[in-house]
Structures are given as structure tokens and as C-alpha cells.
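Q: How would the C-alpha cells look for this protein?
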Amino acid sequence: MASLKSGIIIGLAAAGVAAVALAAGGVRVSPSSVGVSRVPTTMASTATIFAPPPGAPMSFADIFERVSPAVVSIEVTSKVSLKELQNIPGFQNLPNLTPKGDDGDNNDDQAPTQKAESQGSGFFISSDGYIVTNNHVVENATDIKVTLKDGKILPAKVIGRDKATDLAVVKVDGSNYPFVDFENSAKPRVGDWVIAIGNPLGLGDTATAGIVSAYGRDIGDSFVDFIQIDAPINLGNSGGPTFDTYGRVIGVNSQIASPSGGSIGIGFAIPADVADAITKQLIAKGAITRGYMGASIENVTPEIAESLGMGDRKGALVADLTPDGPALRAGVKSGDVVVGVNGHEVDSASELTRLVAASHNGDTLHLAILRDGKPITLDVRSGTRPSEEQIAANLNGSDNTAPTAPDASPVPHPHVLGMTLGALDERTRRQFQMPADAHGALVLGVKGTSDASEQGVQAGDVIVRAGDLTVVAPQDVELAVANARKAGRTSILLGVRRDGRTAFVAVKMDG
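A: Here is the predicted structure in C-alpha cell form.
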């Protein structure tokens, strides 16, 4: 739970049903020394010849001719609930998507599946028929057909899928297929040309060009540091390659940002080094294993950094720890800020997740941590990452801090930061169905004009940490606020527990 408030990532789609899937792509080009010149004509006059400015290519035709035979169109037959269509951009407002029962009411207990046709893209990475595409293109497939550049149609089977990175490998029988290579070392700069080839809207063998717009885009997927490109990408480009101007694959088109599902010039590609490593594992093992330390983490925002006196330093804030997980066994605590792993600086929660995931079971993770403003080092022995469902179950725990709104029975504490706090005792723990060892200050009410309310704190939450203090009573919150004011800070970090999870928010202190 990175925040107490919910957020929306606009227009990020998964598979396209009855149409296609999504993608992003791009290409880089070497400088060209062309300009504008005048040449004589047979009429003894001059004609102006316009050419691209320096740095732009005369044409992408040579690149396209060389690499396009390795790019394929993928047609997928699958079964999908009609109700799920409403989660796909462009389908939300269509009428009668949800099946109805005989009495005309929505029948949610029985969600019938519908045969659906979808389309995507892919590309050969070996001469013996291995093809890379997106997981969301093939994850529900009951039948897969691959169309080659020459129009030949071949059946394909799934070799392996990885939902976390949205990558998959399928295979067709045969040999001597044209293929392309991932480029793991050289990569285009922001502003360099790229070219995307794929199957947009069912129009196979389509090329679009643009530039690399940005690197390091975190769009909600912790395991991928996306490349942003502006080459026009539409439904059906998902799984297609992003080439540089040398014909090397620098990314796998995966998603677009769009309010409607159509291209608005913002696309995202999975970097080649990630795609190369994942697809090799999928071919070898059919599945992906990742390292794991058993901690729920969130970004250190500027407000959180100020509340902790960290200045402009960044890191990953530990919110919750999995019971008996590797991090807890190593002594990591809620409220710790991880700023480094094995010598690599950590700037965000996503970066820490990727660094830990890249480890193997039994590897030692040397964590550089800030605890109460002081640097410490802890060694965590990495485990094997469980399924996402199991991780959620481990972090949720058994307590539920806010099943109902609190009544007025607990003796209220004076207002702190616009919150009315009460003590957790046997009666309130029983009322809120919390375990006997639960500790903290119960939020009985929040003033609507307070920053605590603005940050999403609400009645029924439990404050478990304030500043550098573990909270066992409302007075601890008051003491932590006083300490923060003495230290000259304008905000204080609160650890707020709700529905079995802890999130940290920086709350401004008035006066």
C-alpha cells in the first residue's frame, strides 16, 4: 500500500479482445549530413530539394527490409468473461457488455465466458521457431496462430509466460526462420530515433518511427523499468519489437497510455536486457524464479524525506514485514529506509524490488539502511519469491483494523494533528477484531480540514509509528510531534495500519 489514497494510471491496457493488444516501440538513427541544396535543371533554372535536418535519416526502408521478416502477427482465440471487457480502454462505455439473467438483472454469480479473437505481435529470436511476445497477448489462449511476413500461417504453442514482466515465449515447428537479436549493451539516447514493427489493428507488417522519449518509466510494474517512446503504437502492436537504427532490438512493445485505448504518442517498451534474461529463463525452465526478502515497501517522497530529516536522499521505506520472512529474521524493522543493496544505490521502491528479484535463493543481500536517521548495515539471505497471491496473504495477516466505524465508547484523547485518538485496550481490540498483541493509537475521528485527512487518514485507522517512536498509546504520538517540532521539521512521518497493512504518510504540523 504505497499510499492511503487510491490513484489511477490513465489508459494502460492489457490484452485487446475482439480487436488486439497494446504496445510501445521505437528506433534510433545515426546522424546524416544532408541539407538543402539547389541543382540546375534542363530549363536553366533551379529547383529546391528538401532533405531531413542533420541527425534525421533519409529513410527507414533499409532497416525495415532487413528486420521485418523476423516480425510476426499473432492471432489468439481465447475465452473471456464479457464483464472483463469493461476493464479494457475503449470498451468501458459499450452497452450490454455484462450478461443478464432471465429476470433482466445482472447475474454476477455466473460469469459466462465468450469466445474471443484478439491480435498481437511477436518476433523470432532463434532460427528454430522461438518467438517473443507479451504475456497479455497469449495468457488466456486456447489456440494461437502465427502469420509470417510471406503470409504463411503456422500453429504455435506457449513455452512459458511471466505475468510480472508481461513477457511470453511461443514456438512454431520448423527451422531456418529469420530472427533478430536483443541489444543489451548499447542503447539509444533520449531523443534518438527508433522504429516499431507490428500488427496494429490487424494491419500486419506495419512500421512506425519516432524517438526515445524517456527511460526509467515506472508505470505500476515493479519488475520493469520501461522505455517511453513516441513512435505511433496502437492495439495489436503488443509484443512487437522496438529497433534502433542498426536493426537491433532495444525493447519489446508492451503498453500505451491512453484515455481511450488509441495511440496518443505515449508508448512503453520492456528494455532488451530485461526481455533477454526473462525469455532465456522461459525457454530453459518454462517459468521465472525471483529473489525475495519478505517486506512491503514504498517510495520515499520529498515529504517523507523531510519528515525523517533525510534532505534530498531517496530510498525505499519498509512498511510491513512478512512473518518469519528473510527480512524480519535478519532484523529489518518497519520504518527502516533501504538506501542501498550490495553496493547499488536505491532510489525507489521499484528499484529495490528489481534488485532483490534479481537475486537467487540463498544469496546474501547487503542492505544499507537508515534507521532513526542513523546508517546501519544488515545482511538478508534471499529466499524464493512466492506467488503474488501468497505474498498478499502473508502481508495481509489476520488482523482487520477497521471493519466498522468506531463508536464513542473509548475514552477520547485530545486532538493531535487534527486527529482524535483513543487507546487500544482489550475492549477496542475486540471491537475492531484485532489480535491481543496489537498496539498503537486508535483514530476515533479526523478533522476534515487537517492535513491528516488530506493524506487519507480516517477513523478506524491505527497509528503504529510516529517519527522515530513505536506507538503503544496516544501519548506517544504527542511526544513524537513535540520531538519533530524541536528538530525544526515541518512534518512528521506516521505509520498507519488499515485492513492488516501499514502505510506511511508525512503529515504537516500546524503552528
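Residues 291-396 form a domain with the Pdz3 Domain fold (CATH 2.30.42.10).

The longest strand covers residues 113-124.

Upvote if useful.
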